[in-house]
Amino acid sequence: MTAERKEAPAGEKGLSARLRRLHRWLWWWHFWPGILLAPVIVLASVTGALYVWKGEAEGWLYRHEMRVAPGAERVSLDRMAASVREAVPGDLFSIEWSGEETQPAKAYVQEAGSGRTVLVWIQPFTGEVAGWRYRDEMLFSQIRDLHRFLWSGRLLGNVLPGRLLVEAATSWTILLTLSGVLLWWNGSRARPRQWKLVQRARPYILWRNWHSVPAVWLSVPLVLILVTGLAFSKGAGSLWTGAGALSGTFPEAYVDHPTVSPETRWLPYETLLRKASKASDPQAFSLILYGESERVPLVLRGNYENRPWELRARWLRPDTGEMLSETSWAAMHPYAKGYIASYSVHVGWIGGFWTKLLATFLCLLLVFLVISGLAMWWIRRPSGKSGFPKKTRIALPWWLLTGNAAMGLLLPTVGLSLLVVFLGGLCLPARKPPAGAP
How many helices (H) and strands (E) does the chain have? Predict the structure, then answer.
């Protein structure tokens, strides 16, 4: 986040001195990931800023399908399901409703024949289908897939290279933020101007401050939104959920979903919902059916996408309505709570309008950090030269080596890229010493 500074004077002590001695090394690792991953960071940030406003945008884009006819009482889920199956034949996976009288109920269906997922809007007070759309054709599904997968195809079976690239960019952006804070820190008492966003200075200094100061101010929420974005990734997300499963911090039914025989006769959906409901439950509900497969149905209560603390989860036998397992936000381990809340935090929905605004600003800040970083490099670049930093060989302190190892383990794509750089360095031929050197 800052340009190179002079090395610490001999004998100087303290944190600032130690960081100045590491400056060239930190600068090399800050510069190259930022340059190489800049296009992915910008694309993921712009699509992320758009996705934050998915609810508001879809409310306008599909306003005709989402218009609700007023009524006195919600119809049964079985009436809704019959209407959905008549409109879109296939496997019904879930029915949900926010409990708001102005909002339609929604169902997700895997269409027979094509296997494509269809979103169906249902009038909650009449049971009629108001409209339906293929989910992969909806605008914000496209934005989400671009944000997560870069619209990439599959390689080596089920591997999405775009997904791994986005995960690598997200993981490295966390390290770019942390290394940028270290580069910025050089003793605020000695240099109070480094805290100022606007000051009279030459262009390079202005770009440096515009690049570093906002990122330092907002480094904590910036890292938080990046970490929560990795919760559902292929590498880090799978590692973290696996750790939660092995440590017993996730509900047992979440790790090992209860099943029944495929020939089991199901109770009516409305009966299942009623048996899984309690007087203290929020109005919002989701009945997850898994296409009436061998997996038992799951009833979720509460608007858990926006308010995860409302979550109530209950697994039921479909033939008797017996509650096989249940959990709630209050009963969950803190690790499981963090995982459940990660999506709401990442998309900025957890606190309503103001957290959406903050999430949007953080996404746009990432775009500006890329632009300002490129501007700093271009201004400082010597005429006729690349201006790329040269890697230096120095003895790294134990805390930095330990931190690198921990980051490589917690963020697998970082560990993999570090391994590639290390192996590449071993394969490169040794540089010849200059003529006359001993």
Answer: 16, 8
Give bridge partners of residue 134 from the DSSP assignment: 118
Same domain, 186 and 315: no
Min mean pLDDT across 2-16, 261-275, 329-343 is at 2-16
Position of tokens 């997300």? 237
Closest CA to 3 of 376, 381, 384, 366: 376
- Which of 312, 332, 352 terminates a domain? The answer is 332
Q: Give tens-digit pLDDT for 89-107.
A: 999 999 999 999 999 999 9
Question: What is 308-356 written as a DSSP string?
Answer: GGG-EEEEE-TTT--EEEEEETTTS-HHHHHHHHHHHHHTT-TTTHHHH
Do residues 172 and 222 both lie within one domain? yes
> Exposure string (b/e) for 218-233, b if CB count within 10 Å is 16 or more?
bbebbbbbbbbbbbbb
- What is the percent of the chain with per-residue pLDDT over 90, rounded to a whole number? 61
Q: Is the pTM of this model over 0.90?
A: no
Q: What is the pLDDT of residues 8-32, one digit of tens each?
A: 444 445 555 666 677 788 888 889 9
pLDDT digits (tens, 9 = 90+) for 386-400: 778 777 777 778 888
What Cα–Cα distance (Å) separates residue 310 from each residue in 127, 282, 335?
A: 26, 7, 17
Phi, psi of 91 (to 5 degrees): -90, 120
Residues in the chain: 438
Domain that holds residue 375: 1-68+146-250+334-382+390-426
Question: Whose structure tokens read 């190892």?
Answer: 405
Helices (H), 218-308: 219-229, 236-247, 252-255, 269-275
Q: What are phi and psi of 259, to 5 degrees?
A: -130, 165
Please state, in angstroms and rounded to a whole number, the distance separating the CA atoms of residues 1 and 180: 5
216's enclosing H/E stretch is helix 203-217
